[in-house]
Amino acid sequence: MTTPQRRVPLLDLGAQHAPIRDEILAELIPLIDSQRFIMGPDVGELECKIAGYSQSKYAVACASGSDALLLAWMALELGPGDKVITTPYSFFATAGSLARIGVEPVFVDIDPVTFNIDPNQVEDALKRHTGVWAIQPVHLFGACADMDPLLALGQRYGAVVVEDAAQAIGAEYKGRRCGAIGAMGCFSFYPGKNLGAYGDGGIVTTNDPTLAELLARLRLHGGHEKYYHEFVGINSRLDTIQATVLKVKLRHLDAWTAKRQQNAATYMRLFAKTEAPVVLPVIAPYQTRHVFNQFTILCPRRDELKAHLTANGIGCEIYYPLPLHLQQCFEELGYKAGDLPVSESVSQGALSLPVYPELTEEDQQYVVDAIDAFYRAK
Q1: Is there a contact between 218 and 75 (Cβ–Cβ < 8 Å)?
Q2: pLDDT at 1
Q3: How far is Cα 194 from Cα 249, in angstroms, rounded to an integer?
Q4: What is the rounded CA–CA span in Å between residue 39 and residue 300?
Q5: What is the CATH number of domain 253-377?
Q6: If you count Cβ atoms within 10 Å of the first and of the last residue's Cβ in the chain, which end, N or C, has fewer?
């Protein structure tokens, strides 16, 4: 097997870390000396900064993006017998957080252009199902779902809208930041996210002071004062070390986002010069700030192309190979192949390419040339 000309990883966290290493260490050393590792002051400072960045009044940090979703549903007191409408084309936590507390996810199909939940099908589901208390759009790959129709439907049918914004910090819908549009917004700080910690982490944003207070208690076993518990919560605290790292990285987020947007534009320009039969991302008019957590194309013979790119040293990933409604753990819900055809079709053709901020145009040219060569050869 020949050695690839060069290597282009899907994500290069080392390249991100190197320029800010001293900045990070300068903040971490005093923290380590203080030994305030659990709920130290940096956690509260990060909450204030993320609330401001997301144009929300409040933010409550927690241990992961998955826990952010779980805490939101717990704050709404949902449980067995309740239903939430959501998308099947997302990371597992979108539906897993519901199933974990006995809530039934009601899956509806996605828009074939944006891959986000289709509001028209949400309305159909609301008409068919009783006991739906919430709608959960996912701002997939860094671009907002169409929120105004969803909010209108929520108001009409008495369903709260909770945003799964795990991939979309800083994304905007008609000039409004995601996480401040619905009742709550749930974010992930997993290392691969645009704003990633040096481990797991998450946060919930809201404009409702009652929800903010409830979320803050739920993450601490349901208590406000140590050893006194008004209700049963969970242990989901964001480590102070992660909050410290995130405070530093937040200073750089807008510059990193601008570079991701530049890289996406470069891909568009480079692919336009080829005849490769790929479908490129489309930014809807209401998606006024796409932050490109992923740059995802649709392509024929996807699995063969992925193998070709891997052999040529190019990192790529399939998000997501099997929609949630067809996962084995949700068999009892009764969905079958063909029920949600757009999600199923996209899952068979989607491939995400490197788009991280440190990517060079030469790297991108290598990626595009490899894809073009694959289709020219066969």
Answers
A1: yes
A2: 47
A3: 10
A4: 49
A5: 3.90.1150.10
A6: N
HSE-up of residue 238 (Cα within 13 Å, Cβ side): 37
* Per-residue exposure over 243-269, b if at least 16 CB sit within 10 Å of its own CB, e if not: bbbbbbbbeebeebbebbbebbebbee
CA atoms within 13 A on the CB side of 185: 32
Domain map of the chain by residue range? 15-109+116-250, 253-377
| Token pair recorded at residue 315 | 């990192």
- Is 325 in contact with 107 (CB distance < 8 Å)? yes
pLDDT mean over 1-17: 87
Dump pLDDT digits (tens) for 97-141.
Answer: 999 999 999 999 999 999 999 999 999 999 999 999 999 999 999
Half-sphere exposure of 153 (CA within 13 A, CB side): 24
CATH of domain 15-109+116-250: 3.40.640.10
CA–CA separation, 247 vs 165, rounded Å? 19
